[in-house]
């Protein structure tokens, strides 16, 4: 472990912008969610009504979890933000750990460092310290922010530490996935897949009725944070589970480090074909990206299936509950609620697909910085041909990903209500209308890549802003012009599909893509 | 003879760094041209401009009669390139990469491919991430040498090869020369260039400081002479071409430009020579002189 502190300092220096942004974001949103909810649900009656609808609506349950305690403002904050807070901190931990372990090893820098006086475990230990430390800091600051907003200190700490616990678990998860493969992309993909399962397990558990498999939440690190019941019972003991998981995962990873060679994964690479069949840039793009496309499509099909299976329960629950039925009648009846559910879900799927699109497009940049673009562009392949190979893959791949999600939704919901023929095309359409908005974000990424290549990473900031505005903007009571910044705000809401916005979103996307390409045609290749 | 590459007045800056400063380079069709210079001299930058990967700030560059920035795709059909930093796709095997680059260039010579794989002792079934630096370089070399092109641009292609493979490489380049191909070989190792090249350009600080055949360059080298004379060494100091003169009584040591050897020896003989040792000129010395100036 010698040298860990030097590596920690190196990592903090490299992440001196990234980490503060994460901290600010997760703490800031905690505070602003609290004040916004206080304004929206100031009265006891409004909270009671919210509690009634939130807990009766499987869609809400699946997306946000149950609202355990609507008598206090704290309970509302936990319900509206707790699950997302956990999701975001997990992504933070994942990116930080992979960046300082496997990605470094892949780039050959660990080899350089291992040759100096640095212990075998130092790189892993440093990454764990940085990601785990940041998680704890975020948790503590979240608690302080909640106390600052006049909430009960015990509940505030229960909430903050719950968020931190998800960060710790995913620090451990990615410490482990970083050992498995030689490729940091694969490490992130496996950890990301695990995060998806984590979210879905608790979604399934939360949405399950009295007799359903409620225990599923106990198998999810985000589910554990719900079980803490912050601002209710404040069951701090539940946090022992993530702590044990964290220690176990880090321990296993540390053991694997001693069992493998620097630069290699746990599983040795097998020899492949001596002859190649790839003969074009698009063939190469397909070969490099098909794994990720298949993974994303499968995952989104799964998400679609889960949400699709909840949809019917949304209507059913309303029909079974006369008191609730009256409330719901005022907003258009059970069918309107099912529609609203699909509107929210397809928007969420659109947002997720934009993450796929942007990362597929940014493959261009990583090919460039890793010097792999150079030999290809030194052949008769034109700049246009090379950019198009990955761009087309990303744009069409986005359609495939969304269609898989729509397929999952439509298949399950269609079978449940016994009307597959009508439901399936409707759901496919509802998912695919998100595509132009996702294309706009891809256009922004290509523009940055073409014109300001060193700022390509800003694409992720743009994606995050759209995500936050769309998911949390309405709750935070932001002005319409702020919400309008996200292209997803302009996508027509299911079931009222109009083609006007879709046409102009597509036009904007095309303009951005063309501008990005023109920029790339004129610029130097840089690293 | 026509020029395969002709560059003049080339300037390229990266922010405050002036990577190329009025660079002039001429490579004749059919020759093996050495592009020699210390690290950071601007070799890779020049090559990237010739490949249309970078755009020059000013100056002209012509490659195979075309403009490297505008006629990129057409020119690339006629050349093959081995980069200085070969980085392969982790999941593709060496064989797949060779075939990919070959096909993108318009086809691979199957027989030649197998022959080269054998000579370089390269296993084409291994995945990209498992190759060492030298083996990654071999993959790029096989891909380049097995394609049917007029011009090979090789950027420090041997920096990861062991001496045995270095010899194989030299064989291959000689073979290419016999087939009438033009080769631009960048290197920072003099011996390699001496062994292979018809003509050499020495680059330093983004500027070509010497260019010519090896024989031309030898003219620029100096002979070291130390002698014991019968009398005091009069008049030596005033002669052109004499450097680093040290006089200790009747003994002298100095270096003399190879071109000025004749008048200087005449002057020595005039003073009466008792003993004389001379060390023949080496390119190494010329080369080191330029390297040291660069520091
Ligand atoms: N993309 C770049 N950005 C900034 N500086 C660069 C870049 N590429 C090269 N340089 C600088 O230009 C000079 C020449 O580099 P290079 O052509 O790679 O030299 P060589 O190949 O002869 O070793 C060096 O000082 C190097 O640091
Ligand atoms: Mg170089």
UniProtKB/TrEMBL annotation, chain A:
Record keywords, A-Z:
Membrane, Transmembrane, Transmembrane helix
Question: Would the keyword Plastid turn up in this protein's UniProt record?
Answer: no
Q: Does the keyword rRNA-binding apply?
A: no
UniProt superkingdom: Bacteria
Transmembrane segment boundaries: 17-37, 79-97, 124-148, 154-176, 188-205, 236-257, 293-314, 340-362, 392-415, 427-451, 458-477, 497-520
Q: What is the protein name stated in its UniProt record?
A: ABC-2 type transport system permease protein
Q: What is the lineage of its organism?
A: Bacteria, Bacillati, Actinomycetota, Actinomycetes, Pseudonocardiales
UniProtKB/TrEMBL annotation, chain B:
The superkingdom listed in its UniProt entry is Bacteria
Domain ABC transporter residue range list: 5-230
As for subcellular location, the record says:
Cell membrane
Topology relative to the membrane: Peripheral membrane protein
Which protein family is named in the record? Answer: Belongs to the ABC transporter superfamily.
Q: Which PANTHER family match?
A: ABC TRANSPORTER ATP-BINDING PROTEIN, ABC TRANSPORTER ATP-BINDING PROTEIN NATA
Record lineage: Bacteria, Bacillati, Actinomycetota, Actinomycetes, Pseudonocardiales
| Keyword Transport set for record | yes
Looking up SMART domains in the UniProt record yields: AAA (SM00382)
Per its UniProt record, what Gene3D superfamilies does this chain match?
P-loop containing nucleotide triphosphate hydrolases
Task: Tell me if Transmembrane is a UniProt keyword of this record.
Answer: no
Q: Note the InterPro entries from the entry.
A: AAA+_ATPase, ABC_transporter-like_ATP-bd, ABC_transporter-like_CS, ABC_transporter_ATP-binding, DrrA1/2-like_C, P-loop_NTPase
Native source organism of the sequence? Lentzea jiangxiensis
* Keywords carried by this UniProt record: Antibiotic resistance, ATP-binding, Nucleotide-binding, Transport
Any one cellular-component term (Gene Ontology): plasma membrane
Q: Which is a GO BP term held by this UniProt record?
A: response to antibiotic
What is the name attached to this protein's record? ABC-2 type transport system ATP-binding protein
An example molecular function term from Gene Ontology annotations: ATP hydrolysis activity
């Amino acid at each position: 472990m010698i040298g860990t502190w030097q590596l920690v300092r190196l990592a903090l220096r490299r992440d001196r912008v990234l980490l503060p942004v994460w901290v600010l974001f997760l703490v800031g949103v905690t505070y602003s969610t609290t004040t916004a909810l206080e304004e929206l649900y100031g009265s006891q009656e409004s909270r009671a009504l919210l509690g009634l609808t939130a807990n009766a609506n499987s869609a809400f349950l699946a997306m946000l979890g149950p609202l355990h305690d609507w008598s206090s403002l704290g309970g509302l904050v936990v319900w509206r933000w707790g699950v997302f807070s956990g999701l975001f901190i997990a992504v933070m931990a994942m990116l930080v750990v992979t960046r300082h372990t496997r990605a470094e090893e892949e780039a050959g820098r660990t080899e350089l460092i291992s040759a100096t006086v640095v212990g075998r475990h130092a790189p892993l230990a440093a990454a764990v310290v940085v990601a785990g430390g940041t998680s704890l800091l975020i948790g503590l600051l979240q608690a302080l922010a909640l106390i600052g907003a006049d909430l009960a200190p015990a509940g505030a700490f229960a909430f903050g530490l719950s968020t931190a616990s998800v960060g710790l678990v995913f620090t451990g998860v990615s410490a482990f996935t970083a050992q498995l493969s030689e490729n940091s992309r694969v490490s992130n993909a496996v950890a990301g897949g695990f995060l998806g399962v984590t979210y879905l397990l608790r979604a399934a558990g939360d949405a399950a009725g009295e007799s359903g498999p409620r225990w599923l939440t106990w198998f999810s690190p985000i589910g554990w944070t719900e079980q803490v019941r912050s601002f209710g019972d404040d069951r701090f003991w539940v946090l022992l589970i993530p702590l044990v998981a964290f220690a176990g995962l880090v321990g296993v990873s540390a053991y694997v480090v001693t069992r493998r060679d620097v630069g290699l994964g746990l599983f040795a690479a097998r020899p492949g074909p001596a002859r190649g069949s790839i003969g074009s840039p698009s063939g190469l793009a397909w070969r490099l990206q098909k794994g990720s496309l298949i993974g994303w499509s499968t995952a989104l099909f799964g998400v679609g299936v889960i949400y699709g299976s909840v949809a019917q329960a949304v209507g059913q629950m309303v029909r079974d509950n006369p008191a609730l039925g009256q409330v719901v009648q005022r907003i258009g009846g059970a069918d309107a609620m099912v529609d609203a559910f699909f509107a929210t879900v397809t928007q969420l799927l659109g947002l997720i697909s934009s993450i796929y699109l942007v990362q597929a497009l940014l493959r261009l940049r990583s090919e460039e910085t890793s010097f792999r673009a150079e030999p290809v562009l030194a052949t008769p392949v034109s700049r246009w041909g090379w950019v198009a190979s990955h761009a087309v893959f990303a744009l069409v791949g986005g359609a495939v990903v969304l269609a898989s999600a729509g397929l999952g939704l439509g298949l399950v919901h269609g079978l449940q209500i016994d009307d597959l023929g009508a439901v399936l095309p409707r759901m496919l359409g509802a998912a695919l209308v998100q595509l132009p908005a996702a294309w706009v974000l891809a256009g922004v990424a290509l523009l940055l890549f073409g014109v300001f290549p060193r700022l390509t990473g800003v694409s992720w900031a743009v994606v995050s802003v759209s995500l936050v505005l769309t998911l949390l903007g309405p709750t935070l009571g932001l002005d319409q012009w702020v919400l309008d910044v996200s292209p997803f705000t302009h996508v027509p809401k299911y079931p009222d599909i109009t083609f006007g916005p879709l046409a102009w979103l597509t036009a904007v996307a095309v303009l951005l893509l063309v501008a990005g390409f023109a920029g790339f045609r004129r610029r130097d290749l840089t690293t | 003879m026509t020029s395969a590459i002709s560059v003049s007045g080339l300037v390229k800056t990266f922010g405050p760094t002036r990577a190329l400063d009025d660079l002039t380079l001429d490579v004749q069709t059919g020759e093996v041209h050495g592009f020699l210079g210390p690290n950071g001299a601007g070799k890779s930058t020049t090559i990237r401009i010739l490949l249309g990967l970078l755009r020059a700030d000013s100056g002209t560059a012509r490659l195979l009669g075309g403009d490297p920035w505008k006629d990129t795709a057409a020119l690339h059909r006629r050349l093959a390139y081995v980069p200085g930093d070969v980085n392969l796709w982790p999941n593709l095997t060496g064989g797949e990469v060779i075939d990919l680059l070959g096909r993108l260039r318009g086809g691979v010579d199957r027989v030649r491919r197998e022959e080269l794989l054998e000579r370089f002792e390269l296993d084409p079934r291994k995945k990209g991430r498992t190759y060492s630096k030298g083996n990654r370089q071999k993959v790029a070399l096989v891909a380049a040498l097995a394609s049917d092109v007029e011009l090979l641009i090789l950027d420090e292609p041997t920096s990861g090869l062991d001496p045995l493979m270095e010899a194989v490489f030299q064989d291959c380049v000689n073979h290419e020369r016999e087939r009438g191909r033009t080769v631009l070989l960048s290197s920072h190792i003099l011996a390699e260039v001496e062994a292979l090249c018809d003509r050499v350009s020495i680059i330093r600080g983004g500027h070509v400081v010497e260019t010519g055949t090896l024989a031309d360059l030898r003219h620029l080298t100096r002979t070291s002479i130390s002698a014991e004379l019968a009398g005091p060494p009069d008049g030596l100091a005033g002669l052109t071409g004499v450097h680093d003169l040290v006089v200790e009584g009747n003994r002298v040591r100095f270096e003399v430009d190879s071109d000025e050897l004749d008048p200087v020896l005449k002057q020595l003989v005039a003073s009466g020579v008792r003993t004389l040792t001379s060390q023949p000129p080496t390119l190494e010395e010329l080369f080191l002189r330029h390297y040291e100036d660069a520091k």
